[in-house]
Amino acid sequence: MAVIVETGSVVADANSFIDLVYLRTFAEDRGLVPTGLDDDDIASAKLVIAGQYLQDEQTYAFRGTRVSYLQTMPYPRTGATENRGPAIPDNVVPWRCKIAQALLTCKALAGETLQPGLANGGLAVQSKSIGPLSTTYMAPSGGAAPSARKRYPDVDGVLFPLLMDRSLPNADPTLFQTAWEDTAWADAAYDYP
């Protein structure tokens, strides 16, 4: 499988943010030796699967807008910033995306299935009846439907500053609280002696 790397210039049919050299250096620097890392065909296939995982905007709602309708990867983007951080140029793939893809690829090489479907759409069973067969599912917290994707806290953590507010399910909502929403701060700001 051919790995086509998005460099920030909207590369046609891109399916990855990183190449095999980046992946192998990343793994080596961290002492990771997943099976298949040295096999170009296997590692390339897993790179593409990890890239596909990052393409799902239902899993990761990135800040900003894709530069081109024709681009296949979520970056480059216009109007993107890190959460409470600097603007990201519209011809750059953030280092966070590269690390996230390397982490996901290492997980895939280690046997993780990155895109399994969840039973019942990820909803927990609230009650079952054997009688005329009835099953009731719990409502999703926060009113949002759960993602059918498996989540990886290390990947979510690396990507967190690039994501729109509240795009991670089960995240502590206080992590997204802005200074303007923090009423204690607002009250104190106007407390004059």
Which helices and strands, and how do they pair?
Elements: H1 20-29, H2 40-55, E1 65-66, E2 77-78, H3 95-109, E3 125-129, E4 134-137, H4 153-159, H5 183-189
Antiparallel strand pairs: 1-2, 3-4
SSE series: HHEEHEEHH
Helix share of residues? Answer: 25-40%
Tell me the strand percentage band: 5-15%
Distance between the termini: 68 Å
The number of distinct β-strands equals: 4
Order of strands, widest sheet: 1-2
Report the radius of gyration as a whole number of Å. 20 Å
Helix count from the secondary structure assignment: 5
Classification by helices and strands? mainly alpha
User: Are there runs of 5+ residues with pLDDT below 50, and where?
Assistant: 172-193
Q: If you average the pLDDT, what whole number results?
A: 80
The structural domain count equals: 2
Major beta sheet, specifics? Answer: 2 strands, antiparallel
- Coarse shape: globular
Structure description:
By secondary structure, the chain is mainly α. 28% of the residues lie in helices and 7% in strands. It is built from 5 helices and 4 strands; from the N terminus they run H-H-E-E-H-E-E-H-H. Strands 1-2 form a two-stranded antiparallel ribbon. Strand 3 and strand 4 (134-137) form a beta hairpin. The N and C termini lie far apart (68 Å).
